[in-house]
Every structure is written in structure tokens, then in C-alpha cells.
Amino acid sequence: MDADAAVDELRALGIEPGDLVALVVGDASLSVAVPTWATNWPVAPADVVGRIDRELGPRWVLWSQATAGALAGHGVRLTRSWDAAAVHRLLFGGWRADPGRIWARLHDLPTADLPAPDPIDLFHQTDDGDPAGPLREDGYLDPEWIDGGWASSPDRMAAWAGVLADVARLQLAAVGDVSARDERPMALRTAYAESTAELLCAELTVGGLPMDRAAMEGRISAYVGPRPRSPQEAVELRDARDEEVLRHVPEGVRFDLRSPSQVRSMLRMVGVEVPDTRAWRLERLRDAHPLVDALLAWRKAERVQTTFGYGWLDENLGPDGRFRGEWSGSDGAAGRMTASAGLHNMPADLRGGVVAEPGHVFVRADLGQIEPRVLAAVSGDRALAAASQADDLYAPVAAELGVDRAIAKVAVLGAMYGQTTGEGGRALAGLRRSYPVAMAYLDAADRAAQVGHDLRTYGGRLVRTGSAALGEPGGPDSIGDREARSQAAARGRYGRNAMVQGAAAELFKVWAVTVRARGRDLDAQVVLCLHDELLVHVPDEHAGAAAAMVDDALQEAAARWAPDRSVRFLSDTAVIPTWADAKG
DNA sequence: TGCGGCTATTG
DNA sequence: CACAATAGCCGCAG
């Protein structure tokens, strides 16, 4: 068996572009399956998969991002996928999406306690006869198969691909049901986009973010000084930093600056009384005592030292100048992308260390006022959609309400977050009058979440608001009435916001995977996704074309995601050498 | 050792 | 300190 024969075998099945083909990858072989057929090919997976992708163009069914990550490690990028874990999260909410859970849900089996691997098995050799298949008699998948046993023989790998093909068939039907039942024909498109976003995440994890080690070390040293040459020197430097604060309190008194309660006591000793020691509160008391200023400076440095210091760099920046975190396509309440290693909360001061490689630049683009525009689209509010035609959406809203732009902005944001007090709260009545459809959409989500009714975003993602996500509505009867009301209100804000943030995340991912696809011919590589911002790494000679492509991709994505085109979406796009460089 | 609280950073 | 997230350290329970 060679790659040619493998491609021919699949071609003979009549696979057309976009057809679902399940893929399971082992060390030295791979298995593929369609609903009526499964096989194992003893060939190097990277060679064959890349060719099939180019020549036949299937939509690869994968258990999860891990398969794409293994292939990306060999330089193979799949074009499109059906990611069973991503589709499971879309259909059923939550985060956990291992094969056992996916299978059980599709077969209406309880998932409260899924079968776990029998610890006794660890002391037995896997039986070579292997009469048992992946399915147990009770209908669950065999946990031993899930836990790596699928890879122990060619027959098992083929059977495992067959299970995956079956999963995709059932998920496809379930997605169709969501579209029909909830009148959201979006769900299939969302499944495609979320799946392909998982491919992008695998590539982000493997490929990393270009970073200049010297430039980043320079920025770190501005906060915490040069890299200590020994553990002993590190301790001395730390003590010296502490002393810069402690010298403002009487001799002989020691406080642990890392303990909030001790910091509060320390401040009280110099006559500064605060309910907590958060920076925004201390900011206003800088003049009260020199200790406050020293403490705030210490906090900044301590933050860099512990979270974004030399250790952070050493752990995550490879010798190839790529900084790597792990990427998830859909985490948390509303299905945003997340990243580890601080990629999503790196202090702005350090961004200058994110530098394009020689002969390359970044195209940086961020969506303007994405959440109110998304609210206009998902709610179908014609007045808000009209406001979205302006470059600055808040300007026409302010004019309509007869208030300052700043007030209009906090009012709109407050409505989406569930704020009821302050200036935003006061302007709420005006919003209800002028944008009743959008406000009713938010209120409906709020009310549903308060009583624990699950929600679905515009794209069809289930947002759980019941016991699994937020604790039982109504809660244990030990809590007081006041606290119960407060919890209900918090649940309402959660649901209200999840509908907007979640839909925004869906649009963003359609944009990101469109850029990924259209960037292929320009050697343009998406290297960072940040909720409403894309960073694309591209050779110098393609910079202009890539910037135009990113803007075009947004219009293409918006047209696919919200086909009625009534809402305008904008991106602010710039070609820059480092991430810190000014936007346009 | 695990977990809630506090804190800081980002969108 | 409204919504979301990651991450580190402290203090406490078990």
C-alpha cells in the first residue's frame, strides 16, 4: 500500500468535495471511514492526508483538535473539518467533549457518570484475540478503547474511524433538528465554522506567535531589572523590591505584600483606610501617603515578575522564536476562543516584543464596535441596524437619545451587560423607546436565564443556564431572599450577555477561518486571535494584498453569517512590524 | 492537596 | 467594578 493506492481507493468510493470522511491518525498508519465502509492504511499519515485533502477535498471528521494538531506538526493543514467535539459543544453546551460523552449524548444515554476505565485492566495485557468491539453491551463506548485502546491494532483503528463516521452522521441530523426546531438555519454553518476554527486553533498551538526574545527581555527588564544570574540573586532582588515599599512603614514592622489582608493592615498603620486594596481604589489615594505610590509600583513589577517575567518567556518561547500557548476554539459561557500562557492578557507594554520575522510583517485588524453591531443583527432591530451604517455607531444613538456620545456608549454597553445603575441605567428608558426590538431581545434572554431555561445563540449554540452551569435556579433554601434575588439577577446578566458575546464569537470565528482560507495563496498565517482582533503574519511582498484580503474576508464572513446585510461591520486594519505599533 | 478569595491583565 | 477569560499567591479546610 502506498499513497497513490490510498488516494485511488478513496476516489473509487465517489468522494466529492465537502463529503464527510472520518479520519483517525496513528503513529505509522491511519484509518478513514464513511458510514458504510472503513479501512486502515499502513502508510505515513501526513503524506496521504495532505494529498487526499488537495485532490478530493473532503470535510474531515475528527474526534477533536488533537488530530489536526498531530498533522500540523508534520506540516499538513486540513482545509475543512467536522470536529465532533466542537459540534458536541454547539449542540449540548458545556466544555467536556470526549468520545464517550459525545457518543452517550447522541444515544440518549445518561452522562452523569460515564463508564471509567477499570483500574484492574492496567495490570493485564491487552488481549490479542480482541473479540470485543468499541461498544459495550449497555450501549456506552468502551472506556478502554477511548483511553488509547483504539490504536492498538489496525482493525481497531478502522473500527474507531467507523464509530467516528457514525457520530458525524448522528450529529449532522441533530444539527438539522436544531435548525428546524429553533428556526435557526444557521446551525449547520456554525458547525462548519466552529469545526474549522478548531483546525485554526491546532495550527496556532503548533505554529506559535513570532516573538523577539531580546526585545521582550528588554521590556521585562524595564519592570524587574535584568535577569538574575542565580537563585540567590533572585531572592535578593525580590527582597530589595519589597523593601522599596516597606521602608515607608515604621522600622521593625513586617508585612507580607502578597497578602491582601496584611496590605490592608499596613495601609491602616499609615492612616489609609480602604475596604479592599484594588489598584483603582488606591489610585485615588496616591497623595494620601508615599506608601500608596510605592505599593502600586510594586504591584506592577510583581505582576510582571510572577506572570509575565523571564520564567514565562523561558517556558513558552521556543528556540525558533515562536511563543506557544494552547488554544481552545470554544471555551466558557458563550463560546469564545481562549488561549493559555497569557496570550490573551499579555500586558500592552509587552506587545512590542511580538515582532514579525525578517522579511515579514503583521496585518493587524480588529472589529469596530462588534457587540452592538452584533446585537443589531441577531435581534433584527431595524433602528439599531440603521445606526450601524455609521462609522461610529454611538453617534446616531446619542443623537436619537439626545445625550452625549459617552452616555450613549455606556448605556448601550450597560444594556448588554445588564447594568441597572449609574448613567447607563438612567439612559435605559431612552434605549427601550428607540430600540425596542434589541432591548426586548436582551430582556427575553435575561428572563429565561433567571429561571434556568437554556438559551441558543443566533448561530445555534446551546448556552446552559441550568444546574450544570450556574447552580440550581432558586438554589438551596439556606440562602436568604435578598441573596436569592441577587443570584437570579446575576443569572439574568449572564444569559443576556452570553447571547451577544456568543454571537460575536461566532461571527469572529467565521471571519478568522475565512482569513485562514483566503490567506493560503499569500502565505498569510493567522498567528493570534483576540476576541475581535486578528494578527496575520505575512511576507513583505504580500502585505498590501493581505490587508485587503482581511477586509474582504470580513465582508464575506458577515454576508455568510448575517445574510440580510442590514448591519454594517467594520475592521480597522494596519500593516505593522510589531504588535505594539499604532493602529490606524 | 484542593479550593475560594483577592488581585491584575486582556477584550 | 456591569459581561467574559487566564493566572498567580494566600489562607484555610480536610
What order do the helices and strands come in, and which of them pair?
Layout: H1 3-12, E1 20-25, E2 30-34, E3 37-41, H2 45-56, E4 59-62, H3 65-72, E5 81-83, H4 84-92, H5 99-106, H6 143-146, H7 154-181, H8 186-207, E6 209-210, H9 213-224, H10 231-246, H11 260-269, H12 279-283, H13 290-307, H14 310-316, E7 322-323, E8 327-331, E9 336-339, E10 360-367, H15 370-379, H16 382-387, H17 394-401, H18 405-417, H19 422-426, H20 428-434, H21 436-450, E11 455-456, E12 462-463, H22 467-470, H23 481-518, E13 525-529, E14 533-539, H24 543-561, E15 571-576
Helix pairs in contact: 1-2, 3-8, 4-7, 4-8, 7-8, 8-23, 10-13, 15-21, 15-23, 17-18, 20-21, 21-23, 23-24
The chain binds a DNA duplex (11 and 14 nucleotides) through residues 256, 258-262, 276-281, 299-300, 302-303, 306-308, 331-334, 336, 338-348, 366, 370-371, 410, 413-414, 416-422, 424, 493-494, 496-498, 500-501, 530-533.
Please explain how this structure is put together.
With 584 residues, this protein is α+β, with helices and mostly antiparallel strands. It has four domains: 3-181, Nucleotidyltransferase, domain 5; 213-314, Taq DNA Polymerase, Chain T, domain 4; 321-370 and 506-576, Alpha-Beta Plaits (2-Layer Sandwich), CATH 3.30.70; 371-504, DNA polymerase, domain 1, CATH 1.10.150. The chain is built from 24 helices and 15 strands. The strands form five sheets. A five-stranded mixed sheet has the order 3-2-1-4-5. Strands 13-14-10-15 form a four-stranded antiparallel sheet. α10 (231-246) packs antiparallel against α13 (290-307) and α15 (370-379) packs across α23 (481-518). The longest helix is centred in the C-terminal third of the chain and has 38 residues, at 481-518. It is globular. The model has no long low-confidence stretch (mean pLDDT 93). It binds a DNA duplex (11 and 14 nucleotides) through residues 256, 258-262, 276-281, 299-300, 302-303, 306-308, 331-334, 336, 338-348, 366, 370-371, 410, 413-414, 416-422, 424, 493-494, 496-498, 500-501, 530-533.
